[in-house]
Design goal:
The chain has ten helices and nine strands. Helices cover about 40% and strands about 15% of the residues. Bound molecules: adenosine monophosphate, zinc ion and fe (iii) ion (FE) (2 copies). One fe (iii) ion (FE) binds near residues 62, 73 and 193.
């Protein structure tokens, strides 16, 4: 079997369930794998140290940006990200995330769902909201443990998804701010799971064309959660707009059941050349 790539993985530094070093070890031999935790680089070094990869492993992060219908996710890849100006933005996001978690906790209790900060932190494997990128999946697990929901998905559908009673937005940056910063710093900015923008194909393409002018480099076409047809549609858009094709599983361990690293739901293949192109793009800048 040809070594594959996975450019979208979460560890317990954010809302995955597996520690970064163990996640890296579980992958086995790969062409390229990148850790992309939400709003944190905390797991990056531990992951890179252990992973058995044919290519040198860059840093990665997934950040939530402002969007009409809530947020969309941007994957950013780069070398030594922690030493760039983007790291300052990520720190600001971490503060916003902590405030948002406290707001979520308040809302839950006002709504009659008796959950505590300690329970959420225990699920996230930490002792304070600052140490890790704690998020809604951790709240979802606590709600399930209390019997307020049947599954993580049920907890989102009832309480945590946008428009539901516990939902609280984060203070966020827009792509107009982060895109040009990434371009300046030579970082590769990629729109994650692009259908989450909720746009039909033609408007998606025109939004992406606008973003490309201000720093967008790639599109996550080979996303585990998408059908082969959707992956083909996105690959066509990427080709038309001269965007880099990327892909990955969005593995979260037990927080997203059914997904495996590298394989997604079983039918994901992110070929070696996708990793090659990503590194070429990083090295060009
Ligand atoms: P947060 O960073 O706290 O906004 O949480 C983001 C995480 O929640 C992502 O990993 C998503 O997979 C998960 N998530 C967001 N919306 C939903 C939803 N409607 N159903 C299930 N999971 C979701
Ligand atoms: Zn996540
Ligand atoms: Fe995402
Ligand atoms: Fe993700």
């Amino acid at each position: 079997m040809q070594a594959r790539c996975d450019l979208h993985l979460h560890s317990d530094a954010s809302d995955g369930s597996v520690p970064p070093d163990q996640l890296a070890a579980n992958l086995g031999h790969v062409h390229l794998a990148v850790l992309t935790d939400h709003d944190t680089l905390a797991g990056s070094a531990a992951f890179a140290k252990v992973v058995d990869s044919e290519l040198p492993v860059p840093d990665g992060v997934e950040i939530s940006l402002r969007w009409e219908s809530g947020t969309f996710h941007l994957l950013v890849y780069g070398n030594s990200l922690a030493r760039t100006e983007l790291a300052t933005r990520i720190d600001e996001l971490a503060v916003a995330r902590q405030n948002r978690n406290l707001e979520l906790l308040d809302r839950a209790n006002q709504y009659g769902l008796s959950i505590t900060e300690e329970e959420v932190l225990a699920v996230a494997g930490t002792t304070d909201f600052q140490a890790k990128s704690v998020g809604r999946p951790h709240f979802a697990r606590v709600l399930v443990d209390h019997g307020y929901a049947e599954s993580i998905q049920d907890a989102f559908d009832r309480y945590l998804a946008k428009g539901r009673p516990l939902y609280s937005p984060k203070t966020l940056f827009g792509f107009d701010e982060i895109g040009p910063l990434c371009a300046d710093l030579g970082l590769v900015a990629v729109v994650a799971h692009p259908f989450s923008l909720g746009l039909p194909l033609s408007s998606l393409a025109s939004t992406l064309a606008d973003y490309r002018r201000i720093g967008l480099v790639g599109l996550e076409c080979l996303y585990a959660g998408y059908t082969p047809e959707q992956r083909t549609q996105l690959t066509q858009i990427a080709r038309d707009l001269d965007l880099l094709v990327t892909g990955g599983s969005d593995y979260h361990g037990t927080f997203k059941p059914g997904l495996e690293p590298l394989k997604g739901f079983g039918d994901l293949v992110v070929p070696a050349e996708v990793g090659d192109r990503l590194l070429e793009s990083l090295n060009r800048s």
